[in-house]
Amino acid sequence: MKKYLPKVFAGILSFVIVFSMAGLVYAADIDGDGIPDDQQTNQGTGTTNTLVNPINVSSLDGLVSKILGIAIIVAVPIAALLIIYAGFMYVLAQGDPAKVKTAHQILLWTVVGIAIILGAWAMVQIIQGTVLDIANDSGTPTIIVQ
After folding, report:
1. What pTM did the predictor assign?
2. Where are the domains of the chain?
């Protein structure tokens, strides 16, 4: 039990720290008038404070496309490095069946990961095109490639 105690303590402490900061989210009403400061007009200047969307996405399909785009940007270089690593493992195996099997597994799961990510991207593009086609009621399916 003693060896698990530091892990349990660290988990509880992390939980308390993360959720104690939730109150900071509601700190937008600085002057205490009940109106969030991002929705009121600056006194005397006539300008209005607004929140800016940092990811420039206004719909769910745009958000999913942006997340998958980032996943592809991250996954492709990692997959390339893993394929190169598997090649080195094949060369360094020198006929050892265990090392060849390890290299084969690395290559196989790298290709499976690439297929899953590209399949998810293709599904999003097809669904996005279908939804936009229904919304536009144009009658011809479109696929959006970004």
Report:
1. 0.55
2. 60-136
